[in-house]
Design a protein that fits this description.
single chain, 237 residues, alpha+beta, Alpha-Beta Plaits, 2 domains, 4-stranded antiparallel beta sheet, two-stranded antiparallel ribbon, MgtC/SapB/SrpB/YhiD_fam
């Protein structure tokens, strides 16, 4: 009968390489999408989790027959699940009224679970979970962008000369295009010279009903007197 507390080097290598591969697949998707935690981070988390699981299951096999020693293969694995939260929290950012990084934090947590499953030799659930995560991150992301993009908070950054009425003109224009303004922030970039007109930076947090009107909004804002430059950024999750 095979000893459940012993594993050979071949199977150790297979499990760690599989963890590298599956973690790399998910990390590659995050890397392509330009998120904070990308290819290397996901590989390290998945391989590290698999290593901890291997250590928890087989690293203390020499003490199995010792008196008053009882081994629990899940003892170190449980700490990985709670500990990975600190790493995931580092990818979450709060900016105005939008929160970014939640999906990446969740992918790190799932990758840790996949690594633990591989380390325990639970291959099928690990591989199946990996492909389910890839479907969620890639295919469902495209569906979300196509059908739910209007609910996404976008950031419009405008640089303009400091003159009366500019903010009102921009707000009126956004209202005509059915843009929902969530928050406005304005920063004075005056040069300290009373004889010269300073600059202001205006930031709008908005939801845009149709992505097709973004180009029109940019063109119309640029036509407003005093506007120097305008950019629109989309919050990433």
């Amino acid at each position: 009968m095979t000893n459940p507390w012993v594993i050979d080097q071949l199977h150790i290598t297979i499990r760690l390489l599989l963890a590298l591969f599956l973690g790399g697949l998910i990390g590659f998707e995050r890397e392509v999408s330009s998120h904070a935690a990308g290819l290397r981070t996901h590989i390290l988390v998945c391989v590290g989790s698999a290593l901890v699981m291997l250590l928890s299951m087989y690293g203390f096999s020499a003490f199995v027959n010792e008196v008053n020693v009882r081994l629990d293969p899940s003892r170190l694995a449980a700490q990985v699940i709670s500990g990975i939260g600190f790493l995931g929290a580092g990818t979450i950012m709060f900016n105005g009224r939008s929160i970014t990084g939640l999906t990446t934090a969740a992918s790190l947590w799932v990758v840790a679970g996949i690594g633990l499953a591989i380390g325990a030799g639970f291959y099928y659930p690990a591989i199946l979970s990996c492909f389910m995560v890839l479907i969620s991150l890639w295919i469902l992301n495209k569906v979300e962008h196509k059908y739910f993009s209007g609910k996404k908070v976008r950031i419009i950054k405008i640089q303009a000369t400091d003159q009366p009425g500019t903010l009102g003109l921009i707000t009126t224009l956004l209202g005509k295009t059915n843009v929902d303004i969530r928050k406005i922030a304005m920063e004075d970039q005056g040069n300290g010279d009373e004889d010269e007109v300073g600059c202001i930076h205006i930031t709008f947090y908005v939801t845009i009903p149709k992505p097709a009107v973004i180009v029109t909004i940019l063109e119309e804002i640029n036509k407003i007197s005093g506007v120097i430059g305008v950019t629109i950024e989309k919050s990433k999750v």
